[in-house]
Design brief:
The protein is built from 10 helices and 20 strands. By secondary structure, it is of the alpha+beta class. The strands form 6 sheets. Strands 6-7-12-10-11 form a 5-stranded antiparallel sheet. It has a 4-stranded mixed sheet with strand order 1-2-5-3.
Length: 341
């Protein structure tokens, strides 16, 4: 049976920012075989522009997409083995990220609870090396499978192959635009240790009177914290944290901390310091500000929001204004997280 091909597909409901745009062609794939078939179709293989669309939660659409969109919506959840230290669980790329974290807890497989309530799909998570509350995906990643667009071949990527960095991976660099991730295998610790060093997590547990935190305790605190700070995309369109936390060298940190006693920074193992982008943006007066239909969330300066009717160009204009102001005031360059198409 031929794959269903949509034309002039509305992308507004398929991106969490709620930005308008239509795709000239759109292919939905629900299996590895269908992805392999799709990448060989002339409408995709020969398209002037191609986009692999997951959950649409890390995307800024700037208008109509004159090309072909491939949406891998592959389900699946299975224990596939173990190592000396971890249980291995394989999850389809189309599964929702938060639902997967919750299911793993239900299956007595903790380890991802600090990453609860992050929007998007499982397949998108390794691309960004998502992270929150003291944990990055790289710490719980074993391998993934991806279809090579040029050949249709199925390839397995090891942890080393993915070359993870801060909000970064090989899929944003050398392998960008070359693969469609179809499944991810997680390595979940057999000897679980709570990660409670992040201030918001520690504070939330203390407020609940929790001394010996369980995975469920941390999950509930993270969910409550995110809900208190971050807008629900179903209510107020957004793409989560819009900017990466910039990393500066020791000399730059010495200058900044000398000039701004309250600046927030987190020392890294290599001597560099990760700055809190939200603090920089807030000190520039952007929190709660609005530019027409777009604005900065009033409880989290890292989040740009669509108040209704915004277009991608307006989002990018506000982002550029913020980046320019932070650069002039602090001498620090912010880098956006979302993909712009």
């Amino acid at each position: 049976m031929p794959l269903p091909l949509d034309t002039d597909r509305d992308l507004q409901p398929l991106n969490s920012f709620g930005l308008p745009g239509r795709a000239a062609q759109f292919i939905r794939c629900d299996s590895v075989d269908s992805v392999q078939e799709a990448v060989r179709l002339p409408v995709f293989a020969q398209a002037a522009r191609r986009l692999v669309l997951g959950g649409g939660s890390n995307l800024v659409i700037t208008g109509d997409f004159a090309g072909c969109v491939l949406a891998p919506q592959i389900a699946g959840f299975a224990r596939v083995g173990e190592t000396a230290d971890a249980w291995l669980v394989d999850v389809g790329a189309g599964e929702g990220w938060h639902a997967t974290v919750a299911r793993l807890l239900d299956e007595q497989l903790p380890g991802l609870e600090n990453l609860a309530l992050i929007p998007g799909s499982v397949g998108a998570a390794p691309i960004q090396n998502i992270g929150a509350y003291g944990l990055e995906l790289t710490s719980r990643f074993h391998s993934l499978q991806a279809v090579e667009i040029e050949t249709g071949a199925l390839r397995r990527f090891s942890h080393a192959d993915c070359a993870f960095g801060y909000r970064d991976s090989v899929f944003k660099r050398a392998a960008a635009g070359r693969f469609v991730i179809v499944s991810v295998t997680f390595a979940l610790p057999k000897r679980w240790v709570p990660m409670v060093g992040y201030a918001d997590v520690a504070r939330g547990l203390a407020q609940r009177g929790v001394v010996d935190a369980t995975p469920r305790d941390i999950f509930e605190v993270v969910v409550a914290t995110r809900r208190a700070k971050l807008p629900d995309p179903a209510v107020l369109g957004n793409a989560g944290s819009f900017f990466k936390n910039p990393v500066v060298d020791a000399s730059t940190w010495a200058r900044l901390s000398g000039e701004h006693a309250e600046i927030v920074g987190y020392p890294q193992a290599d001597g560099s310091v990760k700055l809190a982008a939200a603090w920089l943006i807030d000190r520039c007066g952007f929190k709660g500000q609005r530019r027409g239909a777009v604005g900065v969330h009033d409880r989290q300066a890292l989040v740009l929001v669509n108040h209704g009717g915004a277009r991608g160009g307006e989002v990018l204009a506000l982002a550029q204004e913020i980046m320019g102001t932070v650069q002039r005031r602090f001498g620090v360059q912010l880098e956006p997280e979302p993909v712009v198409v």
